[in-house]
Amino acid sequence: MAEEKILYDYYLIYEKTDNAKYISHLDFVRTYNRTMRRAGLPVAFSEGFNPHPQLSFALPLSVGYTSECELLELKLTEELPEAEIRDRLNAVIPDGIKILEAHKGRSRMKKLRYARYIVTPEIMPGSVDGFLNMNEIIIDKKTKSGIKDTDIRPDIREIALSDGKMEMILCAGSDRNLKPDVVVRAMNRYISGYDSGDCEYHRAAVYDDEMKIIN
Amino acid sequence: MSTVNIDKILKRVQKPTRYSGGELNSVMKDPEGADIRYAFVFPDTYEVGMSHLGMKILYHVLNLRPDTYCERVFAPWVDMEEEMRKENIPLFSIETRTPVREFDFVGVTLQYEMCYTNVLNMLDLAGIPLLSKDRGEDAPFVNAGGPCAYNPEPLAEIFDFFTMGEGEEVIGELMDAYKEWKAEGGRRIDYLKKIAKIEGIYVPCLYDVEYNGDGTLKSMTPNCPEAKPRVRKRIVENLDEIVYPDKFIVPFMDIVHDRVSLEVFRGCIRGCRFCQAGMIYRPIREKSPDRLVKDAECLLSSTGYEEMSLSSLSTSDYTRFEELADRLLTLTEKEKVSLSLPSLRVDNFGLSLMERVQKVRKSGLTFAPEAGSQRMRDVINKNVTEEDLMRSVGLAFDGGWLTVKLYFMIGLPYETDGDIAGIARLAEKVAERYYASEKTNKRRAPSVNLSVAGFVPKPFTPFQWAGQNDMETLRRKQQLLKGEIKNRHVKYSYHQSDVSVLEGIFARGDRKLNAVLVRAFELGCKLDGWSECFDMEKWRRAFADCGVDMDFYTRERSYDELFPWDFVDIGVTKDFMMRENERAKAAVTTPHCRLKCSGCGAASLCAGGKCSVYTEESSLKKIRELKENG
After folding, report:
1. Which CATH number does A112-207 carry?
2. What is the ipTM of this complex?
């Protein structure tokens, strides 16, 4: 019988910028595991013949997206000051990833319902009112059961235009999830004469169902 | 100096971390502060190149120099190349995204023949002239090393120079010579003549080549006093004193060998007659367990890798293997790191070690009898008997393993159809062994995976004179073997025969093949090591367009023929290889180095002409043990 160990919960808020935006979610998980090892943190390992650190990520970030609000929960076998965890990880983490905060306890990641994205297109649409007033916005979208024509309108909470940027608040999480590149694809299709060109995507914040920021 | 902007195209390609850089432990220097900029090119994709140990070592050695900045360059995958050509982005380095043509050196490691067209494609993408003679005074020095450089002739018109042997020491000498040459204000040819005097360096344009009427080599003569008639390979004698990286770059994407790799020894005592690595890396030299444990600790903490493996040609031949395994396991168990032990002999010790390493999971075990009959194994000097194999397989099955993988070759010299049928018989015996034992679980079924490659005669082996089977013969033998397998637990897979033939042509090729390579590149050949890209029809056309006969290169050769690679001195003598070929004909084996010295010649590379097998204390102890055990 394995000895019962007391485990300590922590969660991190981190950013992913610059070159790190090209790291896929799966590769990112591996990168984090190795960072934990390098930092020499007393990470709790899963049982089994291939033990790996017990980590859980809130919401996978697509390849090419940057973010300042990523959430990650981990378990340690010892209690450590929050600032020490943050600093030890930042000392050995690849460029473009940075731990902004470390907190004791569990995060509210299970409550995550919305995310706010900042999209920077090469060309701004004049207006999105007509687009948002459509009864349904049908676009082919990857779902759990393959690529399907889907109405994404219900998953768009808000799109605002300002300063050469689009701000989108979209459904996020395991239940209903909409990515802003899908919205941009729909805009290119339904806003006549519009061509966004290549866009930059940035996740700025995540919220619960009452639009309270999760951090 | 300029840099390229790839941000836009990275969004459109698969696996962008192949190109984006910024990996942990990659070396970032101020390019302006470096006197010498060296682009280290691996002529295949990132995930293949990043797995290569030699590149890690030389990258580290060069970057230890404050005056030098070494950066990495890999072949772009098809989608990336398309984007680069569309946007006019030249081939660039990973670290600083500097165009490769702006470097002082472009150093290519040649690991296998099927990467040769990638070299040309990459030079073209870089905007560097393909042929050495067309490069201007400002062009980088394009050079190569690695196992395929031992027969440099098929690429002699492409590279400015080649390095023979181990690079750790000579690469520094090349950099020093570069700075001297720069200070002297010489021309391009002056640098090449200067380094032609360094041991291990071959500058092809300093040699004239003449052919006989039948196309064979008549002579190869230096055309200037600086060039040596024979170029001797470089070795590093004491592996405990060499530089080994204290950090490995940790890629984001999953690469082929994504782990800490410890180089346990160089060289091999075995002397399999088909094996080029077993000859060119001689003499055998080991690292001490102390040094290896130190390297392991250092690399695990700097990389955070969860896996470590040992690198050598035959792990079990390491003289202090038990001590090393024990110390490394103590370390890896503490750090929750898994240890993989490739090329481990399966005996009682090996198996108990594997149990300890693998704990629960019993993945497949690999055996390489290489040939199906005892006669054939004697021909190739693979000193493994059927009893040895059955004992090992029996231990594995009884120990709970279900899957064994067996490696064989077909098309070997002096082979008969009976030897090929022998492969099927042996594989079936292995499968039957599972059911013959009382200890195995009969509710489960064993699986014997048979992997069969076509034999490729390589330079610097006792089989360098051998004829290579043509594609039709190889296909016939593949089908023959397929028909012989009756046991449903035996699964058979084989390699593409046309790739083996092409590999053989370039392995034993001469300067006439440079034109074929250029033509193949023009016709669109690239990434030939990837079956989805390989196109034999284009290759056939390239040979036809150049009027070069493929059969000339696959033919059997006579002892009096002068080979294009004979000017390279690897220590092991041509005379030894001839003796070995004669023993092969008579199916007589040759004992390994610790049982008896066969006078291969490699000892001449060591201080005092004495091979480490007979000077190292640990090796002498092993020899005494072998004698005591008969």
Report:
1. 3.30.70
2. 0.90
